[in-house]
Amino acid sequence: MEEQIIMTLPILEGTDGVKKMSKSLNNYIGLKESSNDMFGKIMSISDDLMWRYFDLLSFKSSVEIKELKKKTEQGLNPMEAKKMLSAEIVTRFHGEEKALLAEKEFTNRFSKGHDPAEIKLIKLSMKTSSISILDLLSSEELGEHKLCKSKSEARRMIAQGAVKIDGKKISDEAISVQNPSENTYQVGKLKHLKIKLKKG
């Protein structure tokens, strides 16, 4: 039998820092995601996981990464290091201009408490006069923009106080959204969506 060369590579943990990155686990960063979403997801990882991402994803040398880590230990805010990582990766897939805009948008959204400048609008046609918030957040009709994977997740996010409608936090999972209507929904820190319901 001829000699064979085997290459092994480390597995990259997902944004939860526990399991491997996987779309089915909803802990992934898609290569085709928007620059804002990509930047935001990288910024959402823990400070400890950030160094793992630097090692596996950054083009910085090990010496540069070691020096940056030393600076954070000496007082540099880890968020600044994470912004460097986010900007580098977003630049790789979207270009420097969009990376700069994504960083600005992130700063406005979280540091200054502003809403995202651009929120996707989805129009849904319904025959009924209302829909439960659990069904709406997990509706398959939202496609890739679905705010929750399931009604169970929607229920859990509401219980955690992580769901807002037009900027107001909701705590009642039994509420319904009237049709027709147009509202802005937020789930967690990263997911924002405008949903326009209309009779049809």
Q: What would you note in describing this structure?
A:
With 200 residues, the protein is α+β, with helices and mostly antiparallel strands. It folds into two domains: 1-117, Tyrosyl-Transfer RNA Synthetase; 121-199, RNA-binding S4 domain (Structural Genomics Hypothetical 15.5 Kd Protein In mrcA-pckA Intergenic Region, Chain A). The protein is built from seven helices and seven strands, in the order H-H-H-H-H-E-E-H-H-E-E-E-E-E. It has helices spanning 35-43, 47-57, 62-73, 78-94, 96-111, 133-137, 151-159; strands spanning 121-126, 130-132, 163-165, 168-169, 176-178, 181-187, 191-199. The strands form two sheets. The chain has a five-stranded mixed sheet with strand order 1-7-6-3-4. Strands 2-5 form a two-stranded antiparallel sheet. Strand 3 (163-165) and strand 4 (168-169) form a beta hairpin. Helix 1 runs antiparallel to helix 4 (78-94). The longest helix has 17 residues, at 78-94. It is globular and about 65 Å long. The termini are far apart. The mean pLDDT is 91. Belongs to the class-I aminoacyl-tRNA synthetase family. This is Tyrosine--tRNA ligase. Pfam families: S4 (PF01479), tRNA-synt_1b (PF00579). Its EC number is 6.1.1.1. InterPro entries: aa-tRNA-synth_Ic, S4_RNA-bd, S4_RNA-bd_sf, Tyr-tRNA-ligase, Tyr-tRNA-ligase_bac-type.
